[in-house]
């Protein structure tokens, strides 16, 4: 970077300024992992910041009656700072000003303007996704808590903890003993009525949960200035501001405040278990069940999850004695990444190798978890509002990608650290912003070509109802070997039998009448002979329809599909499927998109591999014996479509796929353990195309499948 682009030194501008630390700031001394630190709490913004002992000494040296330059010179004389640290000292003063700890009577120079712009951008970015995590302050409960804390102070005593342990432990034993009966209604949880009940239980219990935190904080001398509601994708969750507890010098008191919500909720869940065990009413049992599920399971899974900034996170942070755990962990992960990428040395710290490794892992997981939460909410929205959910995921992904790319670019090009490793930084920047996009867009990479397939037999024949009727009996079962003429199923249709009897009677009457008139009136007899012939043809038709009530095999085969016995007595109409038989060798029938078939160049005789969805670890070899001559959009096997649980998206209106598919058939080699109707994937070979093209096609197919839901 040229000298003209270097920011102006801030020291000459700030040396004449006279500032001091705000007197209303709350300061608490702590010892974290054997090292003294100081925690500042701003009662105006409720923000909490930790500084080292050395930084605190600099803060304590500030005097609003003396210029900053004079204070710095005195610190140099006392040996607490070095003369070359002057610019860093005044940058530290600017940092205090940015935190709102003091007010600087200096013009809004380039540095301050840049800081302000960064803050405004951060706020705007937060608001873009703020509708997913809306925070609404409601009341200031501090006065009420102060007046009533004596009523609940006993809850946080050792004796109360002993009672809590006995009650919760007894409830847990009771729950384990009756777990089969207790979890019986779990399958009905997702009915609208039950969901409404659990939602109401969640709201009430979370209010009690937050008041548990609030009273614990108040009992130990903290201030609780705010209670409100979080709306996470529209679901309300209460919160309270107990940041005053971070100033408690005793770690036990801080942990009690953090655990108070879980402490109270689990006690309520235990009482609900006892109510469930003695309640005579099914309604009361269901209400108790809902409370146990919400207060017990939801508390453990959500509040005690250290990856979310709820109770578990602060417990984890306090036990490790690392304030701002997430920021510290992500900083350690970034330091490791900078070391691996361009060789920037990892700054030394007081943590052990094992703890540093754990912090790096936690930093990566916490960042990924945030992405997972947003994508999970997007998926949930997609079930009701498809394009809203997809749009949210795409917008969030694009925004995060832009931020990451911008930060990486600024660091590699402008940071002082990268300047000391210019060659590696330049190479990395070129790779990230030029080589990598070029590879994604232009460089072809091999990818597997897969098709959806289903196991069948070489020769298959379907049998349908030849007429309307009731299923009288089913004579065979799947797997039975049948021969020509074997009865498969019998239908009953009283109207068909009546029609045969009527036609027979008409035929017999016309024939007898013709015979009786033959000698007396030959002309009249000829008319009745024509009537008899017509009646005979009608009788043949009715007999043929009657015979169709008996479904019989046309050839020797194995029964692979048949109406279940439970269908006996049910009515079927003309053309409804009754059974399917097969013979010959096992085959795989699959459907390949027209574009993929052209890419892979598949021919008869080529070897392919099949992996069943039920056993994807087993590979079954097969040989291509047939490839359809014409691509078609009508999908014969519904099992392979999205409507039947497969992967081929089809239009719910036309019933057709949105692109042509070719049917292929492959004979299975050997005698693998397969059964008719098994679906899976056929590996046809490889094809090279850019990753970006492959991702684009995958995205389109995903959109098509989601539209079927």
Structural descriptors:
5 domains, 709 residues, alpha+beta, Outer Surface Protein A, domain 3, elongated, four-stranded antiparallel beta sheet, disordered N terminus
Written description of the protein model:
The strands form four sheets. A six-stranded antiparallel barrel has the order 7-14-18-16-15-19. A four-stranded antiparallel β-sheet has the order 11-10-8-13, with no helix packed on it. The chain has a three-stranded antiparallel β-sheet with strand order 1-2-3. The chain has helices at residues 11-14, 53-61, 68-77, 86-99, 110-128, 142-152, 158-177, 179-182, 192-219, 251-278, 282-303, 311-320, 325-342, 353-384, 386-414, 416-419, 422-441, 494-516, 522-547, 594-600, 691-708; strands at 26-32, 35-41, 48-52, 133-139, 227-232, 235-240, 444-464, 469-474, 481-482, 487-492, 550-552, 557-562, 571-572, 577-593, 607-612, 620-627, 632-634, 656-668, 679-690. Helix content is 50%, strand content 20%. The protein has five domains: 3-128, Outer Surface Protein A, domain 3 (Alpha-Beta Complex); 131-321, no CATH class; 353-442, no CATH class; 462-572, no CATH class; 579-708, Elongation Factor Tu (Ef-tu), domain 3. The chain is α+β, with helices and mostly antiparallel strands and 709 residues long. It has 21 helices and 19 strands.
